[in-house]
Amino acid sequence: MLIRIPEVLTADELTQARQILAEAAWKDGKSTAGTQALQAKNNEQLSQDSPESERLRALVLKALERHPLFFSAALPKKIYPPLFNRYGGDTNFYGNHVDGAVMQARQTGQRIRSDVSCTLFLAEPEDYDGGDLAIEDTYGTQRVKLAAGDMVLYPSTSIHRVEPVTRGHRVACFFWVESMVRSDEQRRMLFDLDMNLLRLREAYGESSYLVNLTGTYHNLLRMWADT
Ligand code: NI
Questions:
Q1: How many angstroms separate the alpha carbon of residue 189 from the centre of ligand 1?
Q2: 199 and 175: one domain?
Q3: Which of 16, 77, 107, 131 falls 20 to 30 Å from 167 in CA-CA distance?
Q4: What's the CATH number where 164 sits?
């Protein structure tokens, strides 16, 4: 399931992020690719050890923390420290690949199973051509190119690519989530239930039926979650 999370970053945070990015040094993205990804990957990445990366990571993690939609959709147990990449010029695409199942965070050494892949767009779509995130889904290829500050979540099991950028630069933040609920199917049902509970509550106010259904949500989460 693909989920769009709008306005993860405020306009203010986007400006801050861009100021930090303007000072940052980019390096070849192949340096963090596995054997399979190495063939397909042709982009640039921010060094994880740079002070710019650290400031950007903190900014993104803080924004994620206050976002209820991100929590409901990903049900995060562990979040990989966010990374930053850029596509443009001679380094402008990332061919079809699957993200590694277990990622080791460089800063902490912590292992994180990738259940949900996240891309947070930092460049406005009109500032570059191409650069769609294309995700192979049972329904066909889904192409995603969002406004700066918006994020897409997709199952880490899917084959995906970033199509060549033919004008300008596509800058994005990406990371993985190990979810409390490992199954994409179960996570999806919980998300649907949670969103509909929210809408029912907005439309009709609190009722005993809603209290019961909310109980069902939590009981399912209790049954499926691993904390
Ligand atoms: Ni990927």
A1: 25
A2: no
A3: 16
A4: 2.60.120.620
Please give the residue range of the domain that contains residue 193.
Answer: 184-224
Ligand 1 mean position to 99 CA, how many Å? Answer: 5
One domain for residues 40 and 134: yes
- CA–CA dist 176, 102 (Å, integer): 10
The answer to whether residues 212 and 109 belong to one domain is: no
Shared domain check, 133 and 214: no
Number of domains in the chain: 2
CA of 215 to the centre of ligand 1 (A): 36
> pLDDT tens digits, the chain, 227 residues: what are they?
899 999 999 999 999 999 999 999 999 887 766 666 667 889 999 999 999 999 999 999 999 999 999 999 999 999 999 999 999 999 999 999 999 999 999 888 999 999 999 999 999 999 999 999 999 987 899 999 999 999 999 999 999 999 999 999 999 999 999 999 999 999 999 999 999 999 999 999 999 999 999 999 999 999 999 99
